[in-house]
């Protein structure tokens, strides 16, 4: 009997990996890089604004693998539309489930915050690839046990490439299992119900579009049943951006931590000793690349421990930042609208004068934060809408809503500043 | 305008503390002891078995305060049944909301695990009282700002005592706001839906029972509407015990960590230096009581950091335990039934022989775990059932289900042992 | 391509019948006997007490067929435990889905009320069989189109018999798809959340038990995962009985309508003309059996129309009953407890004296209503509990809860009487 | 003690009307016009497409009264912003709850279908007013029992007028309790989850805007918390239009029944006797206005009974329509896109030629159906967005989404035709 994993999940109810094709799951779960994902929260510092948002990348990885299993079931129900060589074999199914489980395995701590704070560091996709392809690593060994080609094929899928483009895009694309899971999971954990959408109906509405002779066709959406499912999926994502991912307290906390990490690295680079500095940071401060092992030692706890220790750092701005973050005394925001948003330099300059006047480092204590999202970008990879009668149509043509949103970008421009500066800055801006 | 806190919550949807009576909430949230609860998971190591169970005591504290607000609303709708001096005044309401928010403020890390691992240490209720009554502490100062008597009154409530017994029992009793929130929250986070019950209906079914001339009456339950609500509440709790709190992997992990902490303390007491040992442990190992400040420095991360560091401890059993916990290579269980459960010594002795034979410390690598719960204990504090016609009845009389469960105890007896011992132990037991 | 039906369902989300095996569903949905189920509410007069309970037997039939599809999926995942001849073939799957869809096709109007009001009438199971086997009927024709043996096999399954006992019991048994659907559907519609249970987990916990050489094994429940799922399922059912199916207003309305129908039939038998009397009643009043066509003309609307018309009946008691029911001026109940419940004759006699004294027909205006349910009866057909280690155990042994409930019967004894009699009867009983 | 009503509701969980202000609810529930709403489905024939959509206007009326109670609670929490004479007194609260309960009391059978089928008939709002103001009616008597001015005030509110415009618009406006309830209820019953929105958050986000000296201010939305709540509310409504209210089978069934009713009236006007014709139709066919009593005798069952009886009508087209509707052999649709939608006359004319050629009445068997909805029309009554800093902004300015949707109209143009015509018409159109 294949090893099995059956788990309760608050989002999908029941996660059951008990088939031959999913035997990779129990094996991969025993590896250290996957267990490490338990120590990295999915939404970084968001729990400072949404107290429920404590869920980890580990549960998300399991959820993504589960959605992949369901998607494979759906694809097979549509198989008759495809020639044999374009269908999902058992081997390809196991590749896809593995890729879904591993898609974020190289993620750094504190969501995307860590990698954006250390500009020289490779991106998490790069680390994922290294983890998958390192022959001495547990992940590689688990993957290659039954099939020596699997690590490479899974790494391709994780990067959105592969023999069957429709499967590769299901790992990384507009409608991928990553997004399918994280929207539901983030909504469940934060309590922001706007992020819910109807996964059953979305899967049911999938069809194969038209390919050419040489490649497998892309996935498409059935117009009569599925248009509203995809509209709602894209809007759910957009609502989550507006409500959660762009939340002012989250953005403020991120700015603070990013500044603290940058200051820490700069101290280290200047030869200042900092307590509990993670080895990867020390190496990065020397301008070198951390080893894979050093990188994998990083998790949320390691970074928080450093920030906690740095409350006693010799650099007063760094110490102040760290104390404020831990006591959740977060920076406040002033939203810029209309003209001020289009040309924020004026407001930023006024606010930094206020900071300077108050004896605070203007570059740190006043920052400009621009958050942008395009709810729907209709590129060639976007699914088309098919129907029994008539030719395929683009989503922006077939959908009233998406037609009005395609290519439009929401932008939030804010000054992020120490709380004691907010009122003076407001007054100065109004003057 | 009173300071306000309005938050998303995945369990109750919306938490709004914006009245005069709840102005304590925003103030208390700014204190370090409350922010510390963000760093203590509600269910300790349970996320090793239920990946969603990452929720913290911080969100639970907010939830309990919210349920208290709702309960106060209900009590006031029933007020006409009471003389004036037994009603909930604004002052008592603010006391009660504060007590609900603070009821767990002295909790140690890793749920109840920490305090059971260090037998000499005061219980968390005791620490809570100290935090509330320490005049130099932030919590005391926030509470006493408007009313010097509040810290003492809140401390009484947290310990289930107070001028109005019905209010005190709502903080700590069979039907308290703690339990009302944690059942829903644990169910939401683990995905074990059996823990859900109907809070709206439970609140609606409350009545005042009969008191005597001198004291306020206890809360009772309306027989025609409320019996099923309370049955379901008690069963929800019982299902959570069976499914989550007694889960074999959770119990196994707890046994391992408890052993590791005890070994750690014993090493420290023997003068063995251990890296990253929390100050409170070092003090406790000397047989002294940690200070309040040392206790408050403890959180989940501090303990996990110690366990991680002790993978390199000189004590081989300690190091082995710590490595296994972090890699989630947990101990397995063998459930004992019938005669073996009634007299587990025989099985334990056989299993320890197997361990000894395998060269493993039998006291550590084989343990006996007995988990017990009484779903419904009908004591004098249990609510009675009232109806418009006829005298009050005890729950066990009025309820078919509770009549059959009252005083009955579920007991799970298990051997908890290293995975490599399970099969040999099973064979030895069967022999 | 097979004909397909894809529907939104408020309970299961999405009902998709699109495989070869479920092509019977679209065909059967086009028959008049199935469309007639749209006109019969699942819970009869329950909407008088729970305004949401308007759902029909039509949606329940679809839901049961959906659960059967899911169950078949689960059985096939367990197939390897069975010899080939005991597995679910495509033919058997289509039989089972058809049987699930058709299991209630012979139901009379107003839930079970109609058949209990006319004692001579065949039970609905009998009518179902006739509908299935009538060669001139649409249902028979739809079933036999591809396979002449199907009507007979489906009729067997509907009656809980068949070649594979585990499949027959899934149509009609302790854990059948009928119950699986109606608990969730009734809970959804009434708002009584206690009726929810975890269908996913229940299906996942199924195993095959041990059969003997000659017959397929029965279904069993996996002890480690499934015990709580089945406990909760049985308790959900029990909670629904307590809260909904035994609700005092529902029972009162049922008593009233049953009396009205009986009086109506008796009038017709006496040759009194009644307006809008359904043909089936007229025939039954003559002591004859209605034809299948006459029976199928009955639905909720036809009965309500008769009751409405009979407000103008020459029989004053009948007219009064009908007026009260339509204006929802329902009878009230007096619950009998303890001794009064054990020997209700005394209370009934006192109450009827009060009625007589008030000039009301005592047999009609005061009735005794005894509602009984046994939450768990452990007979030979009950599933056993299996585990990887050790022999199968009975549910009452393996489950703490079910061990305490097995064979126990809840009984509610009530006087049901005209509202104007309630206070005088209460006084007379208390005297 | 005030009379009380406490009910389970599948949408809101618990409906409790037990205060002084809501004593109107139990009284009004005993009137015949409210009980009649039990016999009128909220969504008319929609259950032909969504089998769960059996919910009635009765449960919706209760739900709207419940939302009004919650809204009143919220308004009072905001009261301090208003001068005394603009606040919600107990009298105004009882008016508002009564109006919410009664807002649809004059509704005809089969949703809006009935009134659109008989063009001469007064609209349901008109009938509601008559019911409220008829001094001999039960509703008037229940309302005027404690306060002779109440019927008139409630009638004003039902029509969206009143002393406090913010309260009047809460009965009938963009954000009224009618819409707040029906979106959730229709979503719950159909299973179309897109209709869900976050009522808690919407209520919490309400503020008072700015009024002038003479009138009470309108309701506004808090920009920082509430914008997304109102966006989601408006989109939920729009999704329900796309998915449910405009569903092709529903629209087709409506067209069929409307034609049948029109043909029926025309037969009656021509002196043709039709069995079971409701009295109100007979009167209307004579060109007279039915009396209030005749109107109130109409409900869904009465119309379905007529349609069933008319299967034997002497008019063959009428009989055919009625037979098809009952057997759910509904008309099919051909959606017209682009140019065909802009100028549908060409397609209609081609399709009618096909019908004529097939010997079918072209006006009945082929119809043009244009369904239109404007998701967000920003008129003067739309709420504005307020914030602590800066002036109020229009919704279309403050919201990225609503700015792109304001004033835009979705239009669905379809040919609705007998199933046997669909393929020939498709071919003819493609030619």
Description:
Four copies of one chain form a homotetramer. Chain A has 431 residues and is mainly alpha-helical. Among the domains of chain A are: 5-191, Orthogonal Bundle (Hypothetical protein af1432); 248-329, Growth Hormone, Chain: A (Up-down Bundle). Chain A has helices spanning 24-29, 32-36, 57-77, 90-102, 113-117, 124-133, 138-144, 150-158, 165-171, 177-190, 199-204, 223-245, 248-269, 279-285, 292-296, 300-309, 316-326, 338-342, 345-357, 362-365, 395-398, 400-405, 419-430, and strands spanning 5-9, 13-17, 206-208, 219-222, 332-336, 366-373, 385-386, 410-417. In chain A, the strands form three sheets. Chain A has a three-stranded mixed beta sheet. Chain A has a three-stranded antiparallel beta sheet with strand order 5-8-6, with helices on both faces. In chain A, helix 13 runs antiparallel to helix 17. The longest helix of chain A has 23 residues, at 223-245. Chain A is globular. Chain A starts with a strand and ends with a helix. The mean pLDDT of chain A is 93. Chain A binds chain B through residues 7-11, 13-14, 30, 32, 35, 38, 41, 47, 50-52, 54-56, 58-59, 62, 188-193, 301, 304-305, 326-329, and chain B through 7-11, 13-14, 30, 32, 35, 38, 41, 47, 50-52, 54-56, 58-59, 62, 188-193, 301, 304-305, 326-329.
